[in-house]
């Protein structure tokens, strides 16, 4: 079965064709990063306009890249939540039009479920249940993947997402947007012991995260050094920050795995491309004999392949939508069934 996946929740217009949820036949992406960088972040209105301009070409490229026509596609999957509302609406409206015109079924996909499904492409042997740490620009979630289309969120950030924190710290250090990957590179050259950063405490659930305190601590560290006339050692700040993030993420992930009895662990989302986080979590999993699944670097950030992969499993689970489908800026993973099968 071949699914066309369409993604437009933030600043990438993306589409891809995936066979049986596991094999990517194409992967087309039009990124707005170069333009959004001028503003130091994503301007929602600009994002929507660029999606409008790019979506036809990107979907055509996904089909031609797979050597297929629309008639060879079994269903159209689209990200409908969560994300920037104006950006999501472009993909949703386009997919609804394509579905109405072609008679192909429309499958609404949750963006976070899509990120997790990137692992099905990289790891053909991965099957639920497993525990997944989703770390992206907008989300930090610990998710029990009970089945392909059934999830329980067991931990989440109380404030900033880890990617957001990476981007703010990177900006303060003078790196371009989005700064996560520049900070990652700088961290490889720095000494993490030069600066000490706090591990924020979270009252209540020990599986929840908090990153705003860490973000403020790094920004204050940089400003205080500058006020004293000292230039911060950029590589060392990056290395200390990266080590602290890797400590926090691996601690919570291992705690959740132990408490909930999971030995199959996965990572997902843009920050899953981070070299320090990957290395640290691999080490902790190896120590305990856990299996670790991480998406290839090219499938960590937003893409259409992950939406088509999850779309396949959501299609098998009976998820469908019609002309009534709306985009939603926020929607919990656990609420998806109610929203899509009982609109
Ligand atoms: O998953 P994603 O593409 O978008 C959302 O759904 O939010 O994640 C984007 C985030 C950005 O914050 C970006 O800086 C971060 O992923 N990122 C990284 C790395 N590559 C991308 N953060 C740390 N290290 C990296 N190597
Ligand atoms: Zn994303």
Fold and architecture overview:
It is a single chain. This protein has two domains: 153 residues, ATPase, nucleotide binding domain (Nucleotidyltransferase, domain 5), CATH 3.30.420; 174 residues, 2-Layer Sandwich (Nucleotidyltransferase, domain 5). The protein is an alpha/beta fold and 343 residues long. Helix 5 runs parallel beside helix 7. Strands 1, 2, 3, 4, 5 and 6 form a six-stranded mixed sheet that branches. Helices cover 45% and strands 18% of the residues. Helix 9 links the parallel strand 10 and strand 11. The structure holds 5'-O-[(R)-(carboxyoxy)(hydroxy)phosphoryl]adenosine (KG4) and zinc ion. Zinc ion binds next to helix 4. 5'-O-[(R)-(carboxyoxy)(hydroxy)phosphoryl]adenosine binds next to helix 5 and helix 6.
Distance between the termini: 26 Å
User: Gyration radius, to the nearest Å?
Assistant: 20 Å
Q: Give the helices and strands as they follow along the chain.
A: EEEEHHEHEHEEEHHHHEHEHH
Q: What ligands are attached or bound here?
A: 5'-O-[(R)-(carboxyoxy)(hydroxy)phosphoryl]adenosine, zinc ion
CATH superfamily of the largest domain: ATPase, nucleotide binding domain
Reported CATH architecture of the largest domain: 2-Layer Sandwich
Overall shape: it is globular
Low-confidence blocks of residues: 338-343
Q: How many domains is the backbone divided into?
A: 2
**What's the total count of β strands?**
11
